[in-house]
Amino acid sequence: xxxxxxxxxxxxxxxxxxxxxxxxxxxxxxxxxxxxxxxxxxxxxxxxxxxxxxxxxxxxxxxxxxxxxxxxxxxxxxxxxxxxxxxxxxxxxxxxxxxxxxxxxxxxxxxxxxxxxxxxxxxxxxxxxxxxxxxxxxxxxxxxxxxxxxxxxxxxxxxxxxxxxxxxxxxxxxxxxxxxxxxxxxxxxxxxxxxxxxxxxxxxxxxxxxxxxxxxxxxxxxxxxxxxxxxxxxxxxxxxxxxxxxxxxxxxxxxx
Length: 256
Ligand SMILES: Nc1ncnc2c1ncn2[C@@H]1O[C@H](COP(=O)(O)OP(=O)(O)OP(=O)(O)O)[C@@H](O)[C@H]1O
Known about the structure:
alpha/beta; Rossmann fold; 8 helices; binds adenosine-5'-triphosphate; ATP hydrolysis activity; ABC transporter related protein; ABC_transporter-like_ATP-bd
């Protein structure tokens, strides 16, 4: 039985709108995430997925409630640099090569040069870009740029990977390929991953559990265990059991 990694207790988040009006983004979220688990936050636009991810990452503070990560606060975990964060848009510096883009956060963290070089080589291989280290971002496809974003996050050896719709700007083929690649990477180091998506099939394919959020305000409406064998490959997408999970989760949104 694996231990609880992230404990979210009675978390609510209310933003203040332009005219001072309260905007309730999340209400009473309770969730335990296990160490090494791959969990997806799924829901329609505006249901608070990004807000929840940002609360875990200590980029926002909850209005009420508490988040505890391995017995520590999100701030303590952030200050220990245990988070790796991958956004929808990887934001690469055009004037830096792939290698130097991956290197930048490590330079900021003052990781010694030799160690940086070793880590860059490792992560480039992990994401399948070993031959592209000396290219510039404009020479890469969107999928390759997203791989660089993932490599950059992994180079910091995070214990918890937070991914906010990392593949949503990509075409279906590239997204499916990167889904498989991500599972491969995860299977090698089994870090806890929280993955935000509004794509049901993607959440089923990747996750151990799918957390379904309903909007206005965001509430936890279901948690679905995805009891499908691993390793998962693209053939899984053709199987009836896969469609059954997709249908089951789609049902959670009926009437929402
Ligand atoms: N800084 C902010 N100020 C005011 N309201 C905000 C702010 N950020 C988010 N919101 C509101 O909070 C709610 C949840 O937003 P959030 O971005 O977390 O949703 P989401 O599920 O990630 O949406 P999407 O899938 O479109 O990214 C929305 O109603 C949004 O308008």
